[in-house]
Specification:
Largest sheet: 19 strands, antiparallel
Structural class: alpha+beta
Shape: globular
Number of strands: 19
Strand content: 15-25%
Helix content: 40-55%
Length: 572
């Protein structure tokens, strides 16, 4: 059974990674005759649902397959050597069953790491996909290019690995059950079924198998599923495309979970009160083209809480999504009001602590938070309103200040002149500099620089203090300080060049290895060959991604109806 679990999980992962949509029929209206309608399996009371209503266009899928093909080619290149390593380690003689399973799977994948190859095994890189809850337990349904081919693929892998795992039968429908040999230790089983037109995967307590199998195997369907209508309304409300969206009903999900837990009525009531602060969570694809993918996530909150959260946001400029800089970052929060908000919530719990025994730790955390939040806050933090960074070049050092950097930064505070005045009292080199709002930037003395050769200028506006790093960067500093505020409620935003980010992480990794004298060979003798191949594939993937990567932008906002998180990635 362990072998079967290993095989099927790997195959399932491959399906999930490639799943999007296949048929030319759409899910935005009831599908025509012969079309796969996976949403028809979704019960109306499901606590969560994720699906695509329309198929992704063929040209978009082809464009992304073309982008990732170098990665697949690199994996194929190393596949033969990995198989040779497994054979050398004793595969085939049952001394290591995991090796038998791995080699069988690798043999099946050899030469098939492409779209034609995957479809020859029954996979469909544009399959319809639906994930929902049967009660609290997840069900995944993925359309297939050919169910017979997938069944033959799985059986072939098991046969070549010497694994015996007969299918079970329920009212004429076959399925696999993957569970521990001792159900008392792990009383939950994973269920896999290859149905006529799709793959179904789920897990639930073994004791509920008889009541759940009919719905899982498609023998019983909901009389009136509302899944399509729910997602269509969601997409229309928030402007999501039909290429993927989802809903999580927090209250309904908690109710389902609590049915399987022994909780007192007071626990149930208090947990429901907590869920009231986020009764619904949604997500959806806002944009999907050959060069960009944009997503939005929303956490709904009561109006009173939403209004409080919006009051914590500072009105400062946000990161520029279309910037040419390597990194743009902005955080705008009023630390004084934020402290008061947190203190209010902690005090409310201390005054009326939770009675549920499972929430006792929250009471303790609230008391500790209340004690810390009542301590005096430094004037600077109380006046803090935000920070912004716009960097074009940087070379980080782990144990020293940055060796090289170009860009501008701003510290937004209530009274910048007062802050500069306090700094001049404690830093003698600053006392001779005349930094006043609206004046041109002034160069900071070399004695203040962490390393020789760094050129820095400072300037001030009515609401911020700015620093320019690098010769010539001071020219853009006044304009940077006077930029207009961003959208209402947006308190965190970032935009960065993904290629520069990868180069930064590579430098950071190399610095860590140098600083701590990491020697992989000494630590991983037994797995050196496999680690080498894994590292080579990972490096090939990173190199391929560098060629297509453009920018990543994201933001977090407090809105009138809750918290909104948005992200967008663009490709060349």
């Amino acid at each position: 059974m362990t072998h079967l679990r290993f095989i099927l999980l790997l195959l399932t992962a491959s399906l999930v990674l490639g799943a999007c949509s296949k048929d030319e029929e759409t899910f935005s209206s009831p599908p025509g005759a012969g079309a796969i309608d996976l949403l028809a399996y979704v019960p109306a009371d499901t606590p969560y649902l994720l699906a695509n209503l329309d198929p992704i266009p063929e040209d978009i899928l082809d464009s992304y397959l073309e982008k990732v093909q170098p990665v697949l080619d690199a994996m194929q290149q190393h596949l033969s050597q990995v198989r040779a390593d497994l054979e050398a380690s004793g595969s085939g003689n049952s001394s290591d069953p995991a090796n038998d399973v791995a080699q069988s799977l690798l043999s099946e994948l050899d030469g098939k790491l492409n779209r034609v190859g995957m479809e020859s095994m029954g996979f469909d890189l544009r399959a319809h996909k639906v994930i929902y809850g049967h009660g609290a337990f997840p069900v995944i349904r993925l359309g297939l290019s050919d169910a017979t081919l997938l069944r033959a693929t799985i059986l072939r892998v098991m046969e070549n690995a010497g694994v015996t795992a007969p299918e079970r039968d329920f009212q004429g429908v076959r399925y696999w059950r993957v569970s521990d040999d001792d159900p008392e230790e792990v009383p939950v089983g994973m269920y896999i079924a290859i149905l006529e037109d799709h793959l179904a995967i789920s897990l639930w307590p073994l004791t509920t198998e008889a009541e759940r199998l009919p719905a899982f195997l498609g023998l019983e369907k909901p009389a009136d599923s509302t899944a399509r209508q729910r997602l269509a309304r969601l997409n229309k409300t928030h402007g999501y495309t039909a290429y993927g969206s989802g809903i999580l009903d927090t209250h309904r999900f908690i109710d389902e979970v609590m049915q399987h837990a022994s909780l007192s009525p007071v626990c149930v009531s208090e947990i429901h009160q907590m869920a009231d602060n986020a009764p619904m969570m949604t997500m959806g694809v806002q944009e999907l083209t050959a060069t960009a993918v944009a997503m939005q996530y929303r956490v709904e909150t009561p109006n009173a809480l939403a209004k409080q959260l919006m009051g914590l946001v500072s009105e400062i400029p946000v990161a520029k999504a279309l910037s040419e800089r390597a990194l743009e970052f902005a955080l705008g929060l009023k630390f004084g009001p934020l402290r008061d908000f947190l203190l209010e919530k902690a005090t409310a719990i201390v005054t009326a602590p939770y009675e549920c025994e499972h929430l006792a730790e929250l009471n303790l955390n609230a008391r500790n938070a209340q004690q810390k939040l009542t301590e005096a806050m430094p004037p600077f933090l109380n006046n803090f309103r935000g920070v912004r960074v716009s960097l074009d070049k940087f070379n980080p050092g782990l144990q020293s200040a940055p060796e090289e950097a170009r860009g501008v930064m701003a510290l937004h505070v209530e009274q910048p002149q007062m802050l500069v005045g306090m700094a001049q009292m404690f830093v003698p080199d600053l006392s001779e500099l005349a930094i006043t709002p609206g004046d041109p930037p002034v160069q900071l003395p070399q004695s203040m620089m962490p390393e020789p050769g760094i050129v820095a200028h400072a300037a001030m506006s009515a609401t911020a203090i700015g620093i320019a790093l690098g010769a010539g960067e001071e020219e853009s500093l006044p304009e940077f300080l006077e930029e207009k505020s961003g959208p209402e409620g947006m308190f965190l935003s970032a935009s960065y060049d993904m290629r520069a980010y990868l180069e930064y992480t590579d430098m950071l990794t190399d610095s860590v290895k140098t600083a701590y004298d990491v020697d992989i060979k000494d630590e991983m003798d037994d797995r050196s060959h496999r680690s080498q191949h894994t590292d080579e594939i990972r490096q090939a993937a990173a190199d391929a991604f560098r060629k297509i990567a453009d920018r990543s932008t994201s933001s977090v906002s407090f809105k009138k109806d809750g918290v909104v998180i948005e992200s967008r990635v663009t490709f060349k």
